[in-house]
Amino acid sequence: MKNSFPFIGLFLLLVPLVTAQLQIGFYNSTCPQAELIVRQVIQQQFETDDTITAALLRMHFHDCFVRGCDASILIDPTNTTPSEKDAGPNQTVRGFNIIDQIKEILEAACPGIVSCADIITLATRESVALAGGPNYSVPTGRRDGQISDPNLVDVPAPQFSVSEALQSFTTKGLTLNDMVTLLGAHTVGVAHCIFFQDRLSDFQGTGMPDPTMDPALVSTLLNLCGTQSDPTAFLDQSTPFVVDNQYYNDILSRRGILQIDQELALDDSSASIVSGFANDALGFQQSFADALVKMGSIDVLVGDAGQIRKNCRVFN
């Protein structure tokens, strides 16, 4: 389904270089059409499936939080060697075929030049802009990792408290403000009922719904989760395909789907940041772009480290 929501918030944000080795325009001389190729593929995909923004944001997050942004999440498992795709949190990560399509075109145009890690980062940027979010400059020059171990996958869980989640983010060099901003990615996408079912009827063993959730939302979700085999709920119930600040208004109204989302609006450490973004759409857009660029620099491989995979699903 093509996105029917207004195309809003598209603007160019200039950001500083993340490191001396990642550069804006890294491929200008070696593969000058690289970013255009990524843009064209994502535009084509978005025309028929506007859920790819949520898929690519999640892929990018799950990649960067495990050994850094090195495309280790793309490696396929074999009969003898598991990969990150086998880990529980990655079972519902999708969009791998989009990365494959981009890589195939880039290999034909510029063999062995553009990394899979940069493809994920650029594809995420393009999908965010198409969904009404910021169009920001992305430093590139990442190289692909050579390890993909499911035992290393340790991403923040939906049931985490703010302090628990923050511990995961700070180990990656991210701040509380970065965390609240990046969780704003839940302005698009869905959650499976299994991840919030306990909030609806037996929250923390009380036999009652989570008292912090709007009772009307509890009723709606109980009906949804009891009528389908593997149902999902929009994390943003008003503009679920648009990258905007509505998510923050939802959680202020006690309409957060995941526990960690609702906790952001209740915890003293993060509540003021939530209120600020809820009242400042442009401020959120700017912070979201900055936080995505910062996340995209986590433990990157550059220079002669790693490799440039020919096929994003297998090591060279």
UniProtKB/TrEMBL annotation:
Stored PANTHER family: PEROXIDASE, PTHR31517
Swiss-Prot/TrEMBL cofactor(s): Ca(2+); heme b
Marked site positions, Transition state stabilizer: R58
Active site: H62 (proton acceptor)
Domain (Plant heme peroxidase family profile): residue spans on this chain: 21-316
Main location per the UniProt record: secreted
Cell compartments where the protein resides: Secreted
One GO CC term, this protein: extracellular region
Residue positions binding heme b: H186
Classification via Pfam families: peroxidase
Signal peptide: 1-20
Cofactor: how and how many bound: Binds 2 calcium ions per subunit. Binds 1 heme b (iron(II)-protoporphyrin IX) group per subunit.
Any one GO molecular function term: metal ion binding
Binding site for substrate: P156
GO biological process assignments: hydrogen peroxide catabolic process; response to oxidative stress
InterPro entries in UniProt: Haem_peroxidase (IPR002016), Haem_peroxidase_sf (IPR010255), Peroxidase_pln (IPR000823), Peroxidases_AS (IPR019794), Peroxidases_heam-ligand_BS (IPR019793), Secretory_peroxidase (IPR033905)
Species per Swiss-Prot/TrEMBL record: Rhododendron simsii (Sims's rhododendron)
Protein name as catalogued: Peroxidase
Disulfide bond positions: C31-C110, C64-C69, C116-C312, C193-C225
Residues noted as binding Ca(2+) 1 in the record, renumbered to the chain: D63, V66, G68, D70, S72, E84
Binding site for Ca(2+) 2: T187, D236, T239, D244
Entry's family note: Belongs to the peroxidase family. Ascorbate peroxidase subfamily.
